[in-house]
Amino acid sequence: MFTENQIQQLNKALKNATPSEIIKKAFELSNEAVVTTNFRPYEAAILHAVSTEVSDVPVVWCDTGYNTPNTYKHAEQVIQELGLNVFLYVPKQTAAHRDVVMGIPSVDDANHALFTEQVKLEPFKRAMEAHKPKVWFTNLRKGQTAFRNSIDIFSLSADGVLKVSPFYYWSDEKLDTYLEENNLPNEFKYFDPTKALANRECGLHA
């Protein structure tokens, strides 16, 4: 649907735009959109920004089943306060069952790829197949990983979906201010079982 030339033009035109302006432009391009979240730190910002423009936008939450109690409490608070239209996707096998037969393999373990497929990639693929979005809002930011440094506000997913990161050039400090100004909570006790390092790519975006 979108060409690389169009992506480059969008990034050039909107490099200094506000998140609201970026989101409005994305919805002009297509209203067949979703916003994905795992309720990690600063996710309340993207959820607030997108749902402010379109209140009933589908919010896809792929829950690995390994979130901390703090993250689940944070998720419930954000969902209620923002009135989010959440669609929950979970692995086909429970964490309790997987703990017995596999556990949480390290990134060097031969089972790590299978583990990542089960808890993250398969639920995400299922979600995208169900919603078939043309626009995908996410909170990727420059400086998070080497891969994320190589993209921009607008990019194309492997399946050709227009991926939109309205806060791409924002720092943590700027996001802290956004959360404070909009009375939004944040939560830092987040655990991703597929990553050993904080700057490791999660698998959905690469």
UniProtKB/TrEMBL annotation:
Annotated GO MF terms: phosphoadenylyl-sulfate reductase (thioredoxin) activity
GO biological process annotation, one example: sulfate assimilation, phosphoadenylyl sulfate reduction by phosphoadenylyl-sulfate reductase (thioredoxin)
Entry GO CC: cytoplasm
Domain Phosphoadenosine phosphosulphate reductase: 34-185
Family recorded in the similarity comment: Belongs to the PAPS reductase family. CysH subfamily.
Protein name (Swiss-Prot/TrEMBL): Phosphoadenylylsulfate reductase
Pathway given in the UniProt record: Sulfur metabolism; hydrogen sulfide biosynthesis; sulfite from sulfate
